[in-house]
């Protein structure tokens, strides 16, 4: 409610800034490279990554530099990983769970989710968003019989170089509100955990568009997710 009120009051400034950013920000391609495979040696592990442009590796040239590649390279010495990536630039949480409604059922041990930035840029409230997250998690359990669901916190959008103030402040504040709701709910779910890329988010380490992760941030993210997985599976 608070962010909706702020948006209403500051609309004459925020909306033109949002339109300008959409038109002026460079459109980077999703990372090239395979989106599925079997790699490593050790304990068998079936892994699915789903989400938005960050999950798709926008900001780096190849999937080996992106979340999927960084995660697998960290795990492959101890696990034999059968993995798949399903990600698309611009998708919201609602769009993903609508798509999953038609997805054939498969078995995965772990699902990693990267969603939220595109939700923050809409008029969706934090309460509405957490309802969508709950529905998505229920679908993941039903579709993929997964034992571990790792949700990525929305990155600190108040540090995105591409965003001017006050838009940067507004979206950053809204992202924090979304994350607070997510953390509270995940703490009640035994099969869900959160991974964050916030501490090392140096603007100089972001992609050239000032909006997506660069290689070092993807590396940190992949390592952080790997530690969450190892804590449960080793």
Task: Describe the structure using short key phrases.
6-stranded mixed sheet; 7 helices; alpha/beta; globular; 6 strands
Structure description:
This protein is an alpha/beta fold and 234 residues long. The chain has seven helices and six strands. It has one domain (1-24, 44-231): Rossmann fold (3-Layer(aba) Sandwich), CATH 3.40.50.1110. The chain has helices at residues 2-24, 67-75, 93-100, 117-120, 126-144, 167-186, 215-233, and strands at residues 36-40, 43-51, 79-87, 110-114, 148-152, 192-195. Helix 6 links the parallel strand 5 (148-152) and strand 6. Helix 1 packs across helix 6. The radius of gyration is 17 Å and the shape is globular. The model has no long low-confidence stretch (mean pLDDT 90).
Q: Quick gist of this model?
A:
Helix content is 44%, strand content 16%. By secondary structure, the protein is an alpha/beta fold.
Q: What distance lies between the first and last C-alpha atoms, to the nearest angstrom?
A: 43 Å
CATH architecture: 3-Layer(aba) Sandwich
Strand order of the largest sheet: 1-3-2-4-5-6
Please work out how many helical segments DSSP would assign.
7
* Overall pLDDT metric: 90
Secondary structure tally: strands? 6
Number of domains: 1
Rg estimate, integer Å: 17 Å
Q: What is the CATH C level class, in words?
A: Alpha Beta
SS content category: alpha/beta
* Helix and strand pattern: HEEHEHEHHEHEH
The major β-sheet equals: 6 strands, mixed
Which ranges are low-confidence, i.e. pLDDT below 50, for 5 or more consecutive residues? Answer: none
What percentage of amino acids are in beta strands?
Answer: 15-25%
Shape: globular
């Amino acid at each position: 409610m608070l962010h909706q009120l702020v948006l209403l009051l500051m609309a004459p400034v925020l909306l033109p800034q949002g339109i300008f950013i959409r038109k002026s920000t460079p459109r980077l391609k999703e990372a090239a490279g395979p989106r599925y495979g079997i790699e490593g040696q050790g304990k068998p592990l079936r892994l699915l990554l789903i989400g938005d442009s960050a999950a798709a590796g926008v900001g780096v040239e190849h999937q080996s530099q992106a979340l999927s590649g960084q995660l697998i390279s960290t795990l492959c010495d101890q696990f034999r990983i059968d993995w798949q990536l399903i990600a698309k630039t611009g998708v919201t949480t609602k769009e993903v769970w609508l798509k999953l409604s038609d997805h054939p059922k498969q078995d995965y041990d772990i699902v990693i989710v990267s969603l939220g930035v595109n939700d923050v840029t809409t008029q969706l409230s934090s309460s509405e968003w957490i309802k969508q997250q709950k529905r998505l998690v229920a679908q993941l359990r039903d579709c993929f019989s997964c034992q571990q669901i790792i949700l990525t916190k929305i990155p600190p959008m108040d540090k995105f170089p591409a965003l001017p103030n006050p838009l940067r402040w507004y979206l950053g504040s809204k992202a924090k509100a979304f994350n607070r709701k997510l953390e509270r709910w995940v703490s009640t779910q035994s099969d869900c955990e959160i991974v964050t890329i916030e501490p090392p988010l140096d603007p100089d380490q972001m992609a050239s568009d000032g909006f997506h992760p660069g290689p070092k941030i993807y590396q940190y993210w992949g390592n952080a997710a790997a530690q969450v997985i190892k804590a449960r599976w080793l």
